[in-house]
Amino acid sequence: MTQQAARPAPAEPAERAWPFQEARKLLDRLARQPADKKQVLFETGYGPSGLPHIGTFGEVARTSMVRHAFAALSDMPTRLIAFSDDMDGLRKVPDNVPNREALARHLGKPLTSVPDPFGTHDSFGAHNNARLRAFLDAFGFDYEFASSTEYYQAGRFDAALLAVLNHYEAILKVILPTLGSERSATYSPFLPLCPRSGRVLQAPVVELKVATGTIVYRDEDGRLEEVPVTGGHCKLQWKADWAMRWVALDVDYEMSGKDLIDSVKLSSQICRILGGRPPDGFTYELFLDEKGEKISKSRGNGLTIEEWLRYASPESLSLYMYQQPRRAKRLYFDVMPRAVDDYLGELAKYPGQGEDERKANPVWHIHSGRPPVEAVPVSFGLLLNLAGTAGTEDKTVLWGFIRRYAPEATPETHPILDRLVGYAIAYFRDIVKPARRFRRATALERAAFEELAAALEAMPPEADGEAVQNELYALGRKHGYANLRDWFRALYEVLFGDSQGPRMGSFAELYGVKQTAALIRARLADAAQPAA
To answer: Is beta strand 190-192 parallel, antiparallel or unpaired with respect to 329-330?
Structure first.
C-alpha cells in the first residue's frame, strides 16, 4: 500500500533550492510507506560532551529548511526532534570549561551524572542541553527536545533494545569487521551502567539471556553481573544506538556530516536487521576554522554561537548555513560581514520576485516563507567603516549620519537596520579596530588624495554617491592607475587601515562629502602613521 500525498506539488517548486530537492526525496519515500503512516519525523542529533557550537545549530537550521519545504509540498504532519546523546560517558575533559580537575574525577560517567563545572545545572549534560535549547528557542525553531537519558530510563526504547538482544549475533557480524583485533575481542553493542561506580562500561558480555531480557557481563573488578538491557540499565554503543533510535522512533529524515558517512552505512545495516527502514538523509560538509582545521566542540576552535550573535544577525548565520551545504567552508570572524550583506541583498530581492523565484530565494527558507519587509538602505560593510571613522560607540551618533543619507529611516521604522548598527559598533570595536594598520600615503598617492579632497570640498553637501564615485574613477585614471582596484586599495589602507573597504561613493554620501574630505586631510597630516 502506498501513502497518498495530501496536496499535489506545485508545477515548478523552485528545484534550484536544495531543501526542495530533499523534500521531494521524502515524498518519494512516503509513496513506498504504509498508508496508515500519520506523520513524518525529522531528527537531529547532538552530542553534549562539549559546549554547543555553530555546527550543531547548522544541522537544526538546515533540517528545518527541508521540513518547511516538505510542508509546502504535502499536508502530511511533521515533527522535528532534537535528540541529545546525554547518556554517553564522559570520555575526556573539554579544554574550554572551568574546574577541569574536578570534572576529571567523573570520566566514564553518563554526562547527565557528571557535575556541572559551571555550577548552574544539575549536570554537565543538562548544562550543555540548556545551552543548545536556549539558542534554538531564541531563534524560534519548532522542535521537540529529547534526552537519551530520559528515553532510556522511561522505557521508551525497551522494545527496540530487546530487538537488539534478539539480533545480537547479526549485529556483531556488521560491527566486528570494522574493529581491530583487540577491540573486537571484547566488543558488545550493550554498555552496562555499573551500579557501584556509575560509569558506562565497555565490558565483555559473557552470556545473553533472551528469555529474561538480560545480559551477564564481567565488570571492572572481574565480577560477573547480570542486568536487564531495558529501563536504563544499559545503553548502546553509538552506531547501534543510532540504528535503534531510528527504529524506535520511526525516523524519516536525518542529516549528518561528511565524517559520519561510514557510520551511516553501518547504522543503516543494523536498522534493517532490526526490521526498520533507515531514514533519508543528507551529507553536509564540515566547517573549518581560520587555519582550515575541523571545528571541534571539545577544542573550542572556530566561532561559537554567542560570538556570531554578538557581532552579526541570526539571519546571516542561517544564510551561511543555507549556502552550499555540501562544500567545506571556513567559519571565523571575517565571514560575518559578507554573510550579513548577502542576507540583505537576498531580502531586498524578495518583494519583486514571483512565487517560484521566492522559493529559490534563501530568505524564504530562512524565515519559513515569511521574511520581514524592510528596505535596508545601508550595507553592513558601510556601517562598519562608519563606526570606525566616526570613532563612537553611540548608536544615536551613527543614526545621525544615516538619517542624512536616508531621511525616512528611524530605529523604529527600520528595526533590522537599528540592530545592524549595534552589531557594527561591536564588530568594529572588537574585531576590526585591533587589527587596523594605517599606512602613510606614497608621494603618488598623496597627490591623488589631495586632489580628491579638493574635489569633495567643491561638491555641494547633498552630492550623491554616484557623483563621488564618478570623480573617484576619473581621478584614479588621471593619476596613472591602470587597475582601479589598486587605487581603491590605497584609499582603504590609508583611510581605514585595511586592504578592503566599502564603495567609496556610498561611504562619502553616508559620512558626508565635506566630512570625507576632512578625513582625507587628517590622514595625510597624521605624521604618526608608520611609513609604507
So the answer is: unpaired
Could you give the C-alpha distances from 286 to 56, 130, 258, in angstroms and in order? 11, 24, 7
Q: Are 70 and 26 in contact (CB under 8 A)?
A: yes
Kind of pairing between the strands at 224-228 and 214-218: antiparallel
Q: Give backbone dihedrals phi and psi of 264, rounded to 5 degrees, phi first.
A: -60, -40
**Mean local confidence (pLDDT), 144-163:** 97
- Residue 33 corresponds to which cell in the numbers above? 510507506
Dump pLDDT digits (tens) for 291-302: 767 766 556 566
Pick 443-525's CATH classification: 1.10.10.350, 1.10.287.3510, 1.10.10.10, 1.10.8.420: 1.10.10.350
Name the phi and psi angles at 342, rounded to 5. Answer: -60, -40
pLDDT of residue 4: 44
User: Cβ of 462: how many Cβ atoms within 10 Å?
Assistant: 10
| 167, 273 contact by CB (below 8 A) | yes
Which residues on neighbouring strands pair with residue 330, listed in sequence order? 288
Contact present, 191 and 177 (Cβ < 8 Å): no
Neighbours of 435 (CB within 10 A): 10
- Quickly list H helices, 140-260: 148-153, 158-166, 168-175, 181-186, 238-249
Residue closest to 287 by CA, chosen among 54, 23, 521: 54
- Burial class from Cβ neighbours inside 10 Å (0-12, 13-18, 19+) for residue 283 reads middle
DSSP class of 531: P
| Domains of the chain, residue spans | 380-435, 443-525
User: What proportion of the chain, given as a percentage, has pLDDT over 90?
Assistant: 71
Residues 461-520 pLDDT 10s: 889 999 999 999 999 999 999 899 999 999 999 999 888 888 899 999 999 999 999 999
**DSSP letters spanning 24-74:** HHHHHHHTTS-TT---EEEEEEE-TTS---HHHHHHHHHHHHHHHHHHHH-
User: For residue 11, what pLDDT band results from cuts at 50, 70 and 90?
Assistant: very low
Note the pLDDT of residue 5.
47
DSSP letters for 398-433: HHHHHHHH-TT--TTT-HHHHHHHHHHHHHIIIIIG
- State how far the alpha carbon of 508 is from the alpha carbons of 394, 504, 515, 517, in Å: 20, 6, 8, 9
**What pLDDT, in 10s, does the model give residues 419-477?**
999 999 999 999 988 988 899 999 889 999 999 999 999 999 889 999 999 999 999 99
